Every structure is written in C-alpha cells, then in structure tokens.
Recover the amino acids of this structure.
C-alpha cells in the first residue's frame, strides 16, 4: 500500500453519526458497571443496557440468545517463599481456571521447557515460569505477513509491538502439568508492576494450582534460583468456577437488499475492559446508530448487529451464533468484527500509562481483491495510520478472536483488532482508549459497506483466493 491518501469520496452522512463524546460516554457507561466476566452481574447489566440502547434506535427483533459459559472468580491467593530457610510473603493472583490450593508446599524448579524441550526436572516441584511477552518487530509483520500496510510516518521500520501473550499463548501451565509438577508460579511478562493478568481465559478447568506474580517479584525469585539458593514455596489460592448463562445480544435492521452485513464484537471482558472491549461495543453501537438514521432504501444491505457473550469463556457466544445463524450467515455479504481502539502503553517507574500513539491496527481481511481494495481505500482516506491488512491465516489456521469462527463459516470477513500489551491486565482503563480513532474507524466502516454496495455475497465468495486454494487442495487429495 502506498503512503498516500486514496481517492475515495466518503459517502457518510455526517448528521447521522454520533460524536466522539457520545461514543466515549457509551464506553464509560459500560466500564462503570464493573468487571464483566462471563456470568458476572456487570456483564448481565451490560446486556440489558445494550437491549435498551438498540430498542431506542428503533431496530427490529432486538433479543437475547442464551449461551452456556463458565463463570470464574478469584477469591485471593497467598504465596510464601523460603529462600535458604528465610520466609517471606509475596503477593499473587490465582491463574484463571486453575484449581484452588489449600496448602501446597514444595521446592521450586525453573520451567525451561521452551528452551530445552524437557520438563522432567519439574516432577514433584513447584514450577517457576517467566512468561516473557512476545516482542516481534512490526516490520516483520509488514514485510512477511501483511498484504498491504498504511504507515505514512514510517513507524513500522523501528516499532517493536509487544504482545499481551508469551510464547505459550494460553497454555502456560501445560508443560508443568504434564511433567507431574505440584503447582505453578508464573511471572507476568510485562514491564509494569501487576500480577493481575487474566490468562488463560479458555474456560478449560485445570486440576492444577497456579498463581501469577509481578515482574519485580519474579526477578527476585529468578535471582534467588540462579544464585543456587534452596527455594521452597507454599501456594494457597481460592477461586470458584461454575456453569452460568450469558447471552448474545442481537438486533436486525433490514435494508434495500435481502443480503446482510454482520457487524459484531463481544461484550464481556476480563476486567473493567475499556479497550477490551468497551471500545468495540462503542464501534458497533455507532454503526447501529448511523444505519438506523439512514432510509431503508439507502441502506445497501440489511444489518445484523451482534454483541456476543462468553468471549472470555472460549468464545462460547460466537460459537453459538455460528451454529444457530448459519442460514443468515449464508445470506451475508460481509462480517465486520470490531475490537480494541487502543493506545500504546508507556511505563513510568513501573506504572502503566497511556501514550499518544495508537497500537498498530490489524485488519484481517478475506483474500478477495475487491474487498482488500476497499479496505485499503477506507484506511487511507480516513488516515488510519499504523494499519496492517493481514490475510485471515496470517498468524494461525484461522484469524484470532471471533473471526476464528466466522471465517470458517464461509462469510467474507473484515476483522479489526489490536493487541496492546495490557489487553488482559487490570490496567485496561478508560485512559487507554484512543478516542481520536473512534469516529474515523466508524466512518471507514460505513464507507467500506457503501463501496461494496454493487456486490453480492456469492460473487465475492467466488473470488476468495483462500477458498480457491482449499478447493484446489481438495481436488489433489487422493480418493479412496
């Protein structure tokens, strides 16, 4: 992608748009409800608030669809260490979906499985693992993964984009579990002081206790281990997990065509979730607000607005949506998924602060040339800097987050998300939202839809290069 603005004539009706202040007020309203984990009261309150907002816009068939989720809540933790016999108390946070621990005491051993491929030394010990966050150079994404990029300031040549995960993603405890360790102490891999890190969030119940400790505490522990001191640990942790019911919030808005555009995000979060995903809620509400004010004859497609639940419970809501809505998915020309309008973090004296820069934006886009061209045009026209257009399979077999379920269902996708390092940390607060991006992204999505108004879903799907490759691979498979 060239670093000049595309010659797109925006077709937004500015009078139908919300203001940036209104969008921030939506995010503020969501955040004020409290921690929105699946099954939590604050998340249920958010569902009801969304229903009221959507009905006030005059949308059709606004309703809740129940989904089964796993509700996990921490009850505190205690970590006691003995370094050469000298005892000390350490702050800790129970790993989500790990087992409570009444009193587990053992010698510690360093988990070096990532480097050595051998975890046998962890048997009978409490494993200590440094979950160092991934730090890929953005230029590598641009040069080797992206199909196009927009970076007029040349930031990508020097930018290192620290991810919110370590190399094991969510399977942080698995090598220790499989080696027969007695427990797990994970060192959070970020550069500010916090042990409140909500990973894993896959809703897989592990009969194995684990706790997170902060980076500074982790450095002390690693130094003691590396000095050759004998280190023992005692873990006590309390948590509760149980089955619960959450809901997808769905609303319809018919258009001039009998085909649909799905515009979605998720409404739950690990903490207060201003960026993850209060910002996504605001982006989808802005689309609902806009299109509800446009005459039906001028809406090129019908719109299905989706706020799915259970994202932090292994994607329970989007899984249910794909299973229950396949007929409408088959009638869809596009699925737009919107998440994470995020500032890059900066750290001052071990404290997380917002910066003035936006976290790089990832636009996972189906390999359909007219769609990629349209995404490129709207990114340039609305000056959405630090943008990478990525194929759906750029990082994994399917795109990350909810696109992992929409893309295999066959619908063309444009999935916007970012991966700020604080995404699963308690520091995801209102000040981390890059509010100046809210309206430009909203305008870009509107223009994207209008640019596709001459297309139908069948024609677009026929141009999907990934699907063509899959069909070719199927032809090449030997037949029984």
């Amino acid at each position: 992608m060239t670093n000049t603005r595309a010659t797109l004539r925006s077709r937004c009706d500015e009078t139908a748009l919300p203001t940036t202040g209104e969008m921030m007020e939506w995010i503020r309203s969501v955040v004020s409800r409290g921690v929105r984990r699946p099954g939590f009261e604050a998340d249920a309150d958010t569902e009801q608030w969304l229903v009221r907002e959507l009905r006030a816009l005059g949308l059709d068939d606004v309703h809740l669809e129940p989904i089964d989720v796993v509700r996990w809540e921490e009850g505190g933790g205690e970590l006691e260490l003995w370094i050469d016999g000298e005892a000390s108390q350490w702050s800790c946070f129970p790993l989500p979906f790990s087992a409570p621990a009444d009193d587990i005491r053992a010698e510690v051993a360093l988990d070096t499985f990532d480097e050595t491929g051998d975890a046998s030394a962890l048997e009978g010990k409490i494993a200590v693992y440094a979950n160092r966050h991934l730090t890929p150079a953005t230029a590598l994404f641009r040069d080797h993964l992206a199909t196009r990029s927009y970076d007029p300031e040349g930031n990508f040549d020097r930018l290192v984009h620290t991810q919110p995960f370590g190399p094991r993603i969510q399977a942080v405890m698995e090598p220790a579990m499989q080696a027969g360790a007695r427990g797990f102490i994970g060192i959070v891999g970020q550069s500010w002081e916090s042990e409140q890190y909500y990973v894993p969030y896959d809703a897989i119940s592990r009969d194995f206790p684990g706790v997170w400790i902060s980076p500074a505490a982790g450095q002390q522990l690693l130094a003691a281990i590396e000095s050759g001191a004998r280190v023992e640990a005692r873990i006590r942790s309390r948590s509760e997990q149980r089955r619960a019911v959450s809901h997808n919030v769905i609303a319809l808005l018919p258009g001039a065509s009998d085909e649909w555009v799905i515009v979605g995000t998720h409404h739950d979060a690990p903490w207060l979730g201003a960026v993850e995903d209060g910002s996504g809620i605001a982006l989808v509400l802005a689309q609902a607000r806009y299109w509800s004010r446009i005459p039906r004859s001028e809406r090129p497609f019908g719109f299905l607005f989706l706020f799915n639940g259970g994202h932090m419970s292994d994607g329970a809501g989007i899984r249910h949506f794909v299973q229950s809505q396949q007929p409408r998915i088959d009638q869809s020309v596009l699925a737009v998924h919107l998440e994470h309008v995020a500032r890059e973090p900066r750290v001052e004296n071990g404290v997380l602060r917002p910066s003035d820069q936006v976290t790089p934006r990832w636009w996972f886009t189906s390999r359909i040339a007219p769609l990629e061209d349209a995404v490129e045009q709207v990114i340039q026209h609305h000056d959405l800097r630090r943008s990478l257009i990525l194929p759906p399979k750029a990082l994994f077999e399917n795109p990350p987050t909810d696109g992992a379920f929409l893309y295999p269902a066959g619908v063309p996708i444009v999935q916007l998300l970012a991966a700020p390092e604080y995404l699963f940390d308690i520091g995801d607060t209102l000040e981390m939202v890059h509010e100046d991006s809210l309206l430009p992204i909203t305008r870009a999505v509107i223009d994207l839809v209008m640019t596709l108004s001459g297309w139908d879903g069948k024609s677009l799907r026929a141009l999907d290069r990934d699907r063509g490759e899959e069909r070719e691979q199927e032809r090449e498979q030997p037949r029984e």
